[in-house]
Write a structure and sequence with these properties.
Elements lengths: L3 E6 L6 E4 L2 E4 L3 H7 L11 E6 L11 H14 L5 E5 L5 H11 E2 L5 E4 L12 H14 L5 E5 L2 E4 L4 E2 L8 E2 L7 E3 L3 E3 L12 E2 L6 E6 L17 E8 L9 H14 L2 E6 L15 H5 L3 E2 L5 H13 L4 H8 L11
Parallel strand pairs: 1-4, 1-5, 5-7, 7-8, 15-16, 16-17, 17-18
Antiparallel strand pairs: 2-3, 6-14, 8-9, 9-12, 10-11, 12-13
């Protein structure tokens, strides 16, 4: 029996058209564009149904509510399709892929996010190849994960991050090898793929307050003291190297004390594209360690943020959340 996939178009560059003000989304354009990709009519390709969101979203406007909508739409149609393809803007694609990896627990079918740097309306574009490959992988390969396909590589969604705003190789997975590579053949790296789940369970995120703080030379920590309120549930610190921050004197001490007082979870990730943040390795991370901050290891910032949303939404106590933040739940981290 021929496979069937559901294509969900949320918006983004891939389906935009030219206007006098620049590229902009146009209702129903993506349906026409897909119908003009004749390779999708091949016997090797699955049949597909298209769901187009209204309004179409620039991915910069993606919010928790949209992640919930995607998860619910997949849940409703889960037993009708062999796989799902989400056409999405590139700016927040890695965030959405990470979020869905936590929200869609027990998945046993491929969910592939893809898009393009150049719209399909242009003669020279990268969207066509990304769509064709995503269709072929979704229909013909057993990859029960939330994935991100771009530039001839299929990544685990919660390991991917956007690395370029200009290049057609826009994404990478610096700390985990691709699940598949597309060249003359589609080569699956089976040892890198998670085992299928048994029963899909959707965990809807609650909209908790989470912040990200990027460390830089000369940072004045007192600027950020006012965000450390009792409403702030978690903060991801993008630190130097292996989890280091500069001495911040009384202002840093105040921030860390407020985090302890308010039971705000502090997760430390590295600013480096590759490698891990393990606090306590250097003296410059001593303050974080003593304040109860936890290491993000090799998680992307996208994965750390969405994992916090996930764990807070399960209403766990703070100790359980800290324990699970450093536990690999969906293939999002390696402790090394």
């Amino acid at each position: 029996m021929k496979k069937r996939v559901c294509v969900i178009y949320t918006g983004g560059t891939i389906g935009m058209t030219r206007t006098e003000y620049g590229y902009a989304p146009k209702k129903d354009f993506i349906r026409t564009a897909l119908s003009e990709i004749k390779e999708l009519d091949s016997e090797e390709m699955p049949d597909y149904d298209l769901v187009e969101y209204d309004p179409l979203l620039d991915s910069s406007n993606i919010a928790v509510s949209h992640w919930i909508q995607l998860a619910e739409d997949i849940e409703k149609a889960y037993h009708q399709y062999d796989g799902f393809i989400i056409l999405h803007g590139t700016d927040t694609m890695a965030y959405t892929a990470s979020a869905l990896s936590f929200m869609l627990k027990g998945i046993s079918k491929p969910v592939i996010l893809t898009g393009s740097q150049i719209p399909l309306c242009e003669i020279r574009n990268d969207g066509r190849d990304n769509i064709i490959a995503a269709f072929m992988i979704a229909a013909n390969y057993d990859i029960p994960e939330i994935c991100l396909y771009f530039g001839n590589k299929l990544f685990r969604g919660n390991r991917a991050t956007k690395i370029s705003s200009d290049d057609l190789i826009a994404f990478d997975s610096p700390n985990y090898p691709p699940l598949a590579e597309v060249g003359v053949r589609i080569d699956l790296n089976k040892d890198n793929i998670l085992a299928p789940g048994k029963d899909l369970e959707v965990i809807k995120f609650q909209n908790h307050q989470i912040a990200v703080l990027k460390i830089f030379p000369g940072i004045q920590f007192e600027v950020f003291e006012n965000i450390m309120t009792s409403n702030l549930k978690g903060i991801v610190i993008e630190a130097f190297g292996a989890g280091n921050i500069p001495e911040g004197g009384r202002a840093l001490e105040n921030i860390l004390n407020k985090a302890i007082e308010n039971q705000t979870i502090v997760v430390v990730c590295t600013q480096c594209l590759k490698g891990s943040a393990i606090i306590g390795q250097y003296e410059t991370s001593k303050g974080l360690f003593e304040a109860g901050a936890i290491s993000g290891y090799d998680m992307t910032v996208e994965a750390a943020i969405t994992k916090l949303y996930y764990l807070f939404s399960l209403n766990y106590d703070i100790d359980t959340i800290k324990k699970l933040m450093v536990t690999d739940l969906r293939g999002e981290l390696s402790r090394r």
